[in-house]
Amino acid sequence: MKKRYMILSACGTGIATSTVAANSCKTLLEERGLKNIEIIECKATEILGKAEIMKPDCIIYTAEIPVAKLGGIKCFRAIQLITGIGTEQLADEMAEYLKTLND
User: Which of 44, 59, 89, 98 is the most buried (most CB within 10 A)?
Assistant: First the structure.
């Protein structure tokens, strides 16, 4: 099992929405057997610099980010974590992806 999963959570201000998304994401992934998850929150405008420094396994975002400039880092649009609609499917997709990193 991978020691730690690093996820960046981005929203417009890096305060409210990214925190809600991060907390929901962590809970849902833990329910799917993924432990040792670290989620760092940031503003959408900070995502390129943070991604370069942190080298995350994936990014969740609720505001537009420059996905094409992120060098192939897997990104999940995560508005479902805010609305509650479609959270299970998103969590399944994320867990499935993260589990492949152990292969």
Answer: 59
Q: How many CB atoms lie within 10 A of CB 68?
A: 8
Q: What pLDDT, on the 0 to 100 scale, is given for residue 8?
A: 96
Encoded amino acid at 7, one letter: I
pLDDT tens for each residue of 49-87: 999 999 999 999 999 999 999 999 999 999 999 999 999
- Helix/strand/coil (H, E, C) string of 13-60? CCCHHHHHHHHHHHHHHHHCCCCCEEEEEEEHHHHHHHHHHHCCCEEE
Which domains, ranges and CATH numbers included, belong to the chain?
A: 5-100 (3.40.50.2300)
